[in-house]
Predict the 3D structure of the following.
Amino acid sequence: VKRLAEINARIKEIENQASKVVEYEEELTDLKEKLEKEQKEYEIINLTLEYLNKADENLKIKYRAPLQNNLDKYTALLSDDKIKANIDIDLKVTALENGISRDIDYYSEGTKNLIEICVRFALVEALFTEDKPPIILDDPFVNLDGEKLSNALKFLEKISKEYQIIYLICHESRGRNV
């Protein structure tokens, strides 16, 4: 009798486990379907990322040369070839000094401002090939000393022959001759 009770208990245990197998199989099927759906979404996201990276690369290639040409033009206008700036494929700007390429953070705030304004004009010219949009400058030369400010104002005078420039200042000393 004891042996029969043990066998019956074991049978019940196996039956319980068997009923769980069906549940586990259903759960496994659901998880497989979910995994398949997630893999498809992953593939779509991966493909989208690949296309976006390719588009980014194509845009950089398309605009890098015109940006560099425009940057050369504007830095020459501004500094009479004292500043040589380069823009790389990732649109990072460096400046050349005595043949040494340096990050623009190496330079004074005033020199950085001058390079940055050249980059902005170069970008505008690269993006707007047919139309010349008005340019709004909100006190861009706040960090310039007297000589650099004088050069920057002459630069604006030259640029204003091509572009309508709205130049906002908060101190009259930065607006001489404009």
Observations:
- Helices lie at 2-79, 109-127, 146-159.
- The radius of gyration is 33 Å.
